Structure formats: structure tokens, C-alpha cells
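Q: For a teaching session next week I want to show students how multiple molecules come together into a single three-dimensional assembly. I've collected the sequence lines for a complex. Could you give me the predicted C-alpha cells for the whole thing so I can convert them for display?
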Amino acid sequence: MLGKMLGHEFKATGRIMLPLLLGEAALAVLSYFAVRFYNTMPLLLTVLARIAIGAFILASVALCFAVLILSILRFRDNVLGDQGYLVNTLPVGVSSIILSKLFVAVFWLLLAAATLAASVLLVTGQQGFNAVRLSVEGFLSLTDAEFQAVFLEMVLEGAGLVLLSLNAAYLSFYAAMAMGYGFATHKTFWSFVSYVVMGMILNYFSGTLINLAATGWEYVGRLDLDSTLSTLTQWRMAAAAVAASQLVKALVFYFVTHLSLKYRLNLE
Amino acid sequence: MAILECKDLKKRYGPTEALRGVSFNLEPGRITGLLGPNGSGKTTFIKLTAGLLVQTSGMLKVCGMEPGRKTKALVSYLPERLDLPLWMKVEAVLDYFRSFYKDFDRDRAADMLEGLGVPLDKPIRALSKGTREKVRLICCMCRKAKLYLLDEPVGGVDPATRDFILRTIIANFDPEAAVLISTHLIGDVEKVLDDVIFLDKGLVKLQSSVDAIRQERGCDVDTLFREVFRC
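A: Of course. Below is the structure for the complete assembly, covering every listed component.
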């Protein structure tokens, strides 16, 4: 059933997300030509070129926020609003409902980020590619040989960490709304309160977890068991601590959402 | 075996008791009216049965199972509010129901809608309120479910649409299934009911067959309802 839910979710969200992404891409192409041929354009066209570039910058700034907000609103309307009568009486598990929304939302956000990156590189041209290359080279010059040897592997691990964090971030909104909409009135207010309270509690615990881990490493260092930790080891330890805290957050938010939808659903 | 069994069913929203110990069974082949004034607990009971709420205490079983994923496949629920996405085309709604409910007869639903002149290629948004209600009712009744839960199916629609709704319920009635209709518009639905349950402030005030009310009390259900719930 998760497959069917995913299929329907892609269909339902695609009708809004795809035009948004295509709009960004179209503005990028327009801006590309505007930048390339600006100096050779007649005066009237330079005005249009400026408008196109301005629209591209605005759209680029707004794109990821728009995708994030639309995905959150989609969860609210489809699960907690009137459509919830249809969705929550389907013969599917609550987990299928949550995961289908989550995976599709994360997919669109990643696609929006990729579209944004590609659009910016298209408009900035060779200068953009050079800037990225120089940034990577500059970063690598600060690291040791052991780190440089596994750089690509580290990039993949970083991507995994981003993916995990995105899931945790979306689930935090879902959990807050699922809790807030369990109240009879002032549902948006209670969603906001739930978001703040849950965020504070979990940030406190995840911060403590990371601090404990850091203290443990320092302790290991002081005992001279391995006092000269390499850049790679330090990086991996930091990444592991952040991944663990994001995983804990994601799981807590998931179960809060699941339990709220199962036991505290309160459709108007 | 009873399609629906409930015993001492209670539901509390914070300090408010919506259901205070409801007990009754629904047998197959019967159309039952769940009748009561506003705030009597009708919608709460239907939501519990549809699996949208969880009871505070008491027993509730659909086909011998507690409401959950399995019973949702056996229950066809028509909510009080329109739950269809407005952007969806009517034919996409039919596909949606077919993909999630094995017992949904898409061809029959399409035939019924075409018979009514409902354009399948139009989005729900483009339809009138009455037509949207018809689409939703047809989606509900074209399932071969064990229990049909209709929450205020005739509320807020014109008399012609009411007649259509009641005709559709009768025409699609399966003797192996049970139908529970919640409403406070008794005069309109009385003619299709076999049994009635009067719900008042979360308690069953009366449970009887419509024939027994007519024979023993010498009045129709609407008159009895007005007597029982006189303000």
C-alpha cells in the first residue's frame, strides 16, 4: 500500500511542484541569455533582461522555502483537514500515510535544491564552476592526505547526513501539527507550541548527547590512547554524533506523529 | 453474526462526554437510522466505527474486529464534509477508489455518474455542491462493503438530490451488509429505514424497528422523534 500511497502523493504534489521547478529552470535560461548578451542588447531589451535576472534571483531565494511550505501544508490539508476523512479511512497503515508524505516531500526538496544549483551554475557559467572548484580545493588544502583519499566517500556520507536531517526536519513539522490538531480549538496555535516545546526538549537532549560524545573523545585523548586524532577521525566522530542525534530526533518525531494520528486524531 | 457490536461504549473529549455508554448491535440486511439532535454523539459514534477516533472505554467491533486497518477495508464511510480533493477530476476520483478498495466497482460508478450527466473529465472544483455530494455518495455505495456509514447524507442538499441519495442507497443495498445512517432530518430518510436508534446526550434513548413504532405507538418515526426530543 505504501507504493500506491507514494504514487498518488507524487501525482498530487507534482501538479504544483513541477511547474515551480520548471519555472525556475525557465527563468535560469532567460537569465543566462540576459547575462551573456547584456552588453550587445538594445536599451529596451536590457530592461527586460534586468527584470528576468531580478525574477530569477527572487525565484531562487523563494524556491526551496516554497517547496518546504507547500509540503507542510499538503500534510495539514490532506491528513488533518477535510481530506483527512478520506485518507485516514483508507485501508492502509498510519505508517504508510506518514512515510508517503515524508518521502515525497524530501524528494521534491532535493529536486528543488538540485534545480536551484543547476540554475545558478547555468547563469554564472564558468565563473560559477570555478568558484565551486576553488572552494573544494581550498577545503582540501586544509585537510591531511588520509582525508583527501576518502573525500568522495565523505561527500556521500555528508549527503546521507543531509538526507537524515531533512527527514527529521519534516517529521518535526508533522509531529507538531499532528499534536496541535488533536486539540479541539486553536489548532494552529497548539501546533506552534508543540513545535517549540518538542524542539527545545530534543535540542537539549541531542546537545547533551553531542557534548557527552565530545567529552568522551577528550577523555580518550587525555589517556594518550590516541592523542593525535586525524582530521578524518575527528570529522567522522563529529558526523556520527550529528547523525545519531538526527536519527533520534527523526524517530521521536515519527512516533509522536504516528501515535497522534492513531489515538488523538480530531478532524473537525 | 452482527456486523457491528458495541457495548458500554464511551468517548470523552477532555471534560466533555460525547458517548456515555452506548450499547447495540447492527445485523446484516438492515438499514438503521442513528437519530438524535445536534450534539447527541451521532458523528462521534460513526467516527469511532470508521476508525477515525479511539474510544475512551467500552467495546466496539466491526465484523468481529476492533476498528483498524482491516475493518477499514470492510467499511464504506460517507463523511459529513466533502473529503475529495477539489483539484481531482471525477474519473481520477474513481481510479483512486479502485486503487485502494478491492470491492469498488468502478464501471458501475462511472455508469451511474454518466447516467446523471456528471462529466467525468471535470475536476470536483467545477461541480455544484449537490453534484459533489452525488459523486461522493456513488463512490461510497459502489463498494461491496459489509457496513455502510452515512453521516448526514441528506444534510444541506436540495429535495431532488435527497431523493436521489435515498434511491441510490436502496438500489445499491446488499442484504449481506448493514447500513447506518446518521441524520436529524428524519422525515426525509424514514421511508428507507428498517430500524432506528435514538441517541440523546451520548446515550441510547430508544432502539426499535420502524414497523414496531408504527404498530405499537401508532405514529411515524418523525412524530415520535419530535415527542421524545421536545425542547
